[in-house]
């Protein structure tokens, strides 16, 4: 079956004046217009294409790569707003439509928005929604504590930053665990720190527990080796902000890291900092 809104690998079955007709293993066909036809091809060659609906709502194949595919999230720029809704640039000739009812906040031309792309079952069209929370579900979790997860930064709150976990669940990074600038739409790795009884997921950007010590000890070592005279003007009495600015880690994590290095006799802890031995 040819999947609308996604990449499909199809066979070239015939050439026409309009372009090449492609087919899947079930003999479903779609046109690849002339502007996308490769310079060299053979009938029965396989080609990877993206399939969506053209301006006349007919399935069409293209070799362009969109900025987002069906059932995924992305930051897109709004290029126009009409009486029907907003149109978003997603890298294809026909722009992605976001109805007013699917806008968390009224979109404006030139603005950037985190959206979810999905197939509207009523119209059978690909549309965007900036109401991303409704495409996430924590009723049955597919993650557990200590798992490494893929994150998309969603929106800030008073207590931290909301994130999309593995494109499926809500998660939260508390302010105390944020040691770098985060922007909506950023994609990064994190770890599940805790799953609360209500299935709320607490996320940290570094590793946790005993697993957290070694990687951060290595990071401190790297900074020491790169610094002048193998010295850093930081120790367990330093201000948390100074540690955060220099190493992008919390004071608690830093103290564990230098404790590990000290026990291994790799550093000395001095009154005004730490030094490589």
Describe this structure in words.
- With 277 residues, this protein is mainly β.
- It folds into four domains: 6-62, Nucleic acid-binding proteins (OB fold (Dihydrolipoamide Acetyltransferase, E2P)); 72-133, OB fold (Dihydrolipoamide Acetyltransferase, E2P) (Beta Barrel), CATH 2.40.50.330; 148-206, OB fold (Dihydrolipoamide Acetyltransferase, E2P) (Beta Barrel), CATH 2.40.50; 210-276, Winged helix-like DNA-binding domain superfamily/Winged helix DNA-binding domain (Arc Repressor Mutant, subunit A).
- It has three helices and 18 strands.
- It has helices at 213-226, 240-247, 251-263; strands at residues 6-15, 19-23, 29-33, 46-53, 59-62, 72-81, 85-89, 96-99, 112-120, 125-129, 148-157, 160-165, 169-174, 187-195, 201-204, 231-232, 267-270, 273-276.
- The strands form four sheets. A five-stranded antiparallel β-sheet has the order 3-2-1-4-5, with no helix packed on it. It has a five-stranded antiparallel β-sheet with strand order 8-7-6-9-10, with no helix packed on it. The chain has a five-stranded antiparallel β-sheet with strand order 13-12-11-14-15, with no helix packed on it.
- Helix 1 (213-226) packs across helix 3 (251-263).
- The chain is elongated and about 80 Å long.
- The model has no long low-confidence stretch (mean pLDDT 92).
């Amino acid at each position: 079956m040819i999947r609308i809104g996604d990449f499909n690998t199809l066979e070239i079955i015939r050439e026409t004046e309009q372009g090449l007709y492609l087919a899947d293993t079930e003999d479903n066909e779609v046109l690849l217009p002339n502007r996308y036809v490769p310079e060299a091809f053979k009938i029965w060659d396989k080609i990877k294409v993206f399939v969506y609906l053209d301006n006349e709502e007919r399935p069409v194949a293209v070799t362009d790569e969109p900025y987002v595919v069906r059932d995924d999230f992305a930051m897109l720029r709004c290029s126009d707003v009409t009486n029907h809704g907003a149109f978003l640039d997603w890298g294809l000739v026909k722009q992605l439509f976001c109805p007013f009812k699917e806008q968390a906040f009224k979109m404006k031309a030139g603005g950037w928005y985190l959206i979810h792309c999905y197939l509207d079952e009523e119209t059978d069209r690909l549309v965007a929604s900036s109401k991303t929370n409704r495409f996430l579900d924590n009723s049955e979790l597919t993650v557990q504590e200590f798992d490494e997860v893929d994150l998309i930064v969603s929106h800030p709150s008073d207590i931290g930053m909301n994130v999309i976990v593995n494109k499926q669940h809500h998660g939260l990074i508390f302010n105390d665990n944020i040691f770098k600038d985060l922007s909506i739409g950023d994609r990064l790795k994190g770890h599940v720190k805790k799953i609360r009884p209500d299935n709320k997921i607490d996320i940290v950007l570094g590793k946790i527990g005993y697993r957290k010590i070694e990687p951060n000890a290595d990071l401190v070592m790297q900074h020491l080796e790169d610094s002048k005279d193998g010295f850093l003007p930081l120790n367990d009495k330093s201000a948390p902000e100074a540690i955060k600015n220099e190493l992008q880690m919390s004071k608690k994590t830093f103290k564990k890291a230098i404790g590990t290095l000290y026990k291994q006799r790799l550093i000395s802890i001095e009154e005004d900092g730490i030094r490589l031995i």
